[in-house]
């Protein structure tokens, strides 16, 4: 079974690898980085689709499906589980959704292995340490382990959220690696003043992604059914203790009782309130960054992504959690992360360039990019 799964992952990865190889660009390493980052973004969105369709246990073992490499070979087990519980976690459709997610995750892993090999093979030509690419491979292995824990621990909320955060961290690492490989661009020296604001923007977004993942994994999206009020109140009845107990089973308290609705309300309400903080601060940062040369385009995209997040977040409540909007909301968070990582890199480079101009000692890589 493991050899068959590996073969499927390699086969899927051959398509983007072939695309990189046949393209006329000489900088194949850079192109492979960005193709892998794009597919990682797609994988994050498909992972949210898997979670939102309750397909996370479509195949209740790991890495295969009832000991097989595909649901077709496990059809008898799947049909038996579906007959016993038609609306349960195991159905024919959910099994395929779960396994397709695993196939593409393996393909991304294969691409990252190829990326690391290329980084070591061309380390002198690239003029950057291959250890960063090696660290990305370690990160994807840890992410795979949490994917296994997600299934074996039966969708325990903190494990699912960690799986989401590690996926976002993998995307951020690939974006940073791609930014290092891009040719240098002119950035206004004034961008150095945004060094700490952009870092705070990224920190606030990461906290909000955690809170959003906590809402989703606890199925608390519809705990508040109206907006801007929550169940007709500005401050509804909430149970923060049970809502934010991290180590517990899905739908249960740490004591093993069913989690009260007031705990789900607390989870939803905190995410909603913190969203106001994040939207306000990132909006202010985007408006300030768009005035600067070299940052204006990314800042405009940031503001557009913020507007999309607001629209999809509200539609989840007002339109009773439509699947397309929910997946788009998860994808929007990943896009915001992508943009803020890029802005962090660009502003950090501008800061180091300004320091070099002022006479501070420079790292060789920074001097090369600044030239």
From TrEMBL:
It is a multi-pass membrane protein. Signal peptide: none annotated. Its EC number is 1.3.-.-. Its main location: membrane. Keywords: Cell membrane, Disulfide bond, Heme biosynthesis, Iron, Membrane, Metal-binding, Oxidoreductase, Transmembrane, Transmembrane helix. One of its GO terms (molecular function) is oxidoreductase activity. It is found in: Membrane. The chain crosses the membrane at residues 6-22, 34-52, 100-119, 131-152, 158-177, 198-217, 269-287, 299-317, 323-343. It is an enzyme of class 1 (oxidoreductase). The keyword Transmembrane helix applies. Pathway: Porphyrin-containing compound metabolism. This is Heme A synthase.
